[in-house]
Amino acid sequence: MKKILLGFVGLLFSSGAFAQKDSLAFDENNKYIYYKTVDQPGSIADSLYSRGLYFLTKAYPKKVLKLAKADKDGNALTGTGIFLVNKKGLMGNSEGGELSYTLKIEVKDGKYRYWLTDFVYQPYQRNRYGNVEHMHGKDVSLEKASEKLSKVDFNACLNQVLSNSKHVGDNLKAYMLKTSSLEKPAEVKKVKRVSTKEW
Questions:
Q1: Residue 197 falls within a domain, yes or no?
Q2: pTM for the full model?
Q3: What is the annotated signal peptide range for this record (predicted)?
Q4: What is the CATH number of the domain that holds 29?
Q5: How far apart are CA 40 and CA 57, in angstroms?
């Protein structure tokens, strides 16, 4: 019986350790960050860069995730995006607001890294027509959101940030494995010149 109990306790601790592998952390500026490094042996930096660029321009609609800056020399890409955050209500979840973030991708030969940071919570409110709209001037960084939101809403917000960040990361990994890239510009065919002076 003791062996079974010890095995069960060990299983709980190992599953808890596994769940903590994928979590939000704080960076050197005390901002929330979702950071991953991925090894991709045999890939060169140029192909990883073009795949990352393809991801930022084609994976999501522009209002959800878009390219903000491309630095070919530094092998770095920056995108900005948003996702919806639900809040707990009496009758279930409702749209609580949206969270904007910055996605940064850096590539090297054989590996790349990405991180989501600069999370800013933008709360919603219902207008007099019952439609949801932004509460202007109420934007708050995720680090200070615990002061503005209830504990339940803040914890739900953190969980949604983590799951959405993981989803974006999983999509990026899938795009980084694809061999397709941005369409090459079509070659301009040379047009034969005709002289109207001679005939």
A1: no
A2: 0.73
A3: 1-19
A4: 3.30.530.80
A5: 22
Question: Domains in the chain: how many in total?
Answer: 1
Is residue 188 in some structural domain? no
Token readout for 150 is 């209830």
Quote the domain boundaries for residue 134: 24-177
Pairing of strands 25-26, 32-39: antiparallel
Whether 81 contacts 100, CB under 8 Å: yes
Q: Are 161 and 119 in contact (CB under 8 A)?
A: yes
With the CA atoms of 89, 92, 94 and 99 taken in that order, what torsion angle do they form, in degrees rounded to the nearest 10?
A: 90
Mind listing the pLDDT tens digit for each residue in 113-167? 999 999 998 887 777 887 777 777 777 888 888 887 778 878 888 888 899 999 9
- For residue 18, give Cα distances in angstroms to 65, 67, 104, 177, 197: 29, 33, 25, 25, 80
Q: Which helix (H) or strand (E) holds 39?
A: strand 32-39
Neighbours of 56 (CB within 10 A): 24
